[in-house]
Specification:
By secondary structure, the protein is of the alpha+beta class. It folds into 2 domains: 2-126, no CATH class; 147-190, no CATH class. Helix content is 20%, strand content 26%. The chain contains 5 helices and 9 strands; from the N terminus they run E-E-E-H-E-E-H-E-E-E-E-H-H-H. Strands 2-3-8-5-7-6 form a 6-stranded mixed β-barrel. The longest helix has 14 residues, at 160-173. The radius of gyration is 18 Å and the shape is elongated. Mean pLDDT is 76; it is low at 174-197.
């Protein structure tokens, strides 16, 4: 069994395309703006959803809030905006001034329309580098899906230390008053609840 967290999910709510610029590339008048979908994910996201790494590397545990902000792009975005170049190593600036360096290219997954190829590509950011108070837990199991109670028990038993580490990253990033009584996860029934203090 493997688990990851992400926001937003493909075909889920909260998706939006954001404009960006490529550092060092001139912006010409009347040139259409560049857009990409943005996803925030934990390092295990790509293995859980079986999204292949095409080039470079995926996020790791070492990529945290105190390190250089890194980005992964999907192959659709790479082909569209770097048709004759390798985007790995390039710096980009998203709308709002968020900067990052591309370290890998991953396979494309449909985001909102199974019948169309017109979707924009995707930027992936690490939730460990840019934590937000909301995420969906993704779990891949062998065999039939389990009930919420069985899943909660299995996740805890599979790797209690790793799950605790993931939760502690969110707890340290958000004070109790900002997250209320519940954990910042959409799939809260699948996770152990924090002890009140």
């Amino acid at each position: 069994m493997a688990a990851a967290a992400a926001y937003p999910l493909p075909f889920g709510t909260g998706s939006e395309a954001r404009a960006f610029q490529i550092s060092g590339r001139p912006v010409h008048p009347n040139e259409p703006a560049m857009f990409a979908q943005v996803r925030l994910v934990t390092p295990e996201f790509f293995s859980v959803l079986r999204i292949p790494l095409k080039r470079g590397r995926v996020f790791g545990e070492q990529d945290s809030t105190g390190t250089e902000r890194l980005i992964l792009v999907d192959e659709t975005l790479a082909h569209r905006y770097w048709p004759d170049q390798d985007p790995v190593g390039q710096q980009v600036v998203l709308q709002g001034g968020i900067q990052g360096r591309i370290v890998g290219i991953v396979g494309h997954t449909r985001q909102s329309d199974l019948a169309s190829n017109s979707e924009s590509g995707v930027f992936y950011y690490s939730l460990y580098q840019q934590p937000i108070p909301l995420a969906t837990l993704l779990v891949r199991t062998a065999g039939r899906p389990a009930s919420a109670a069985a899943l909660r028990e299995a996740v805890s038993a599979a790797d209690r230390h790793r799950l605790s580490s993931m939760l502690n990253r969110w707890r340290s990033a958000f004070p109790r008053r900002s997250r209320g009584a519940s954990l910042p996860w959409r799939c809260s029934p699948c996770l152990p609840q924090p002890h009140s203090s």
